[in-house]
Design goal:
Elements: H1 9-28, H2 37-47, E1 52-53, E2 58-59, E3 64-66, E4 75-77, E5 82-83, E6 88-90, E7 95-97, E8 102-103, E9 108-109, E10 112-114, E11 127-129, E12 132-134, E13 139-140, E14 145-146, E15 152-153, E16 158-159, E17 164-165, E18 173-176, E19 181-185
Parallel strand pairs: 1-4, 2-5, 3-6, 4-7, 5-8, 6-9, 7-12, 8-13, 9-14, 12-15, 13-16, 14-17, 16-18
Antiparallel strand pairs: 10-11, 18-19
Bound molecules: coenzyme A (COA).
Coenzyme A binds near residues 163, 174 and 177.
Length: about 200
């Protein structure tokens, strides 16, 4: 992937210019007033200049989407998605968010990592990018952190509040903790049927 290092001035200045415009516009659209439904729709319309965003999607105040060094990587957000206050999404590696996803307040998604194990100065370190796919109908709880090794949050998955996700999460899995581990799976709710959750006793 082309990266915008200073050794490649053409890429660097292109990335820096685009990123400046994107961050500046997001800063203008960041205040709480843009969370009011009608005004939020206007904000989403403006953000569509930079990102692919579906229908009925809500992006409330304090949300930031940023790309670090990488160019040509995109952020795609589906229909009926809710991205709540102060969520931060680094889409340097490319991020796709499926339909009906909720990302709760102050969650952090990171898709680039510095290769920092050697003793090289930070400015000389290589950067590794990972693309992330967040499956439809999944829910990322408040203050969860999704680290750069993660490539997939499965369809219908739930990430508990405050969890630190270091590995892929499969469809319908519910994960919690640091590092996040599977505790059980979402199950079908059938009318008039007792809900039985794997791993939990019936009378809980
Ligand atoms: C993961 C989650 C969905 C589970 O909800 P639940 O099914 O009602 O689970 P319970 O509250 O019965 O908890 C079950 C167990 O998991 C633990 N647990 C639940 N959520 C946890 C979390 N986020 N981190 C660590 N442990 C957690 C509980 O302590 C409990 O442990 P125990 O059985 O040893 O007592 C929920 O706890 C959660 O994190 N929701 C996100 C909330 C949020 O972000 N809200 C913002 C809305 S916009």
């Amino acid at each position: 992937m082309p990266t915008a290092s200073k050794e490649n001035p053409k890429h660097y200045y292109r990335w820096a210019f685009l990123e400046f415009i994107r961050r500046f516009v997001q800063m203008l659209l960041s205040p709480r007033v843009f969370s009011i439904p009608g005004i939020n729709a206007l904000k989403v319309m403006i953000l569509r200049m930079f990102f692919e965003i579906g229908r009925n999607t809500t992006i409330v105040h304090g949300v930031y989407f940023e790309s670090h060094h990488a160019i040509k990587k995109t952020l795609v957000i589906g229909d009926n998605v809710s991205i709540l206050k102060n969520v931060f999404i680094d889409f340097s590696g490319g991020v796709t968010i499926g339909n009906e996803v909720t990302i709760s307040p102050e969650a952090l998604i990171c898709t680039h990592n510095h290769i920092a194990l050697s003793r090289e100065l930070r400015s000389k370190q290589n950067i590794r990018y990972t693309s992330l796919e967040i499956g439809a109908d999944s829910w990322i709880g408040s203050r969860a952190i999704i680290l750069p090794n993660v490539r997939k949050i499965g369809q219908g998955a739930i990430i508990g509040a405050g969890s630190v996700v270091t590995q892929d999460v499969d469809d319908w899995e519910i994960v919690i903790g640091n590092p996040a581990k599977k505790i059980w799976e979402r199950v079908e709710f059938a009318e008039n049927t007792e809900l039985s959750i794997p791993g939990r006793s019936e009378n809980q």
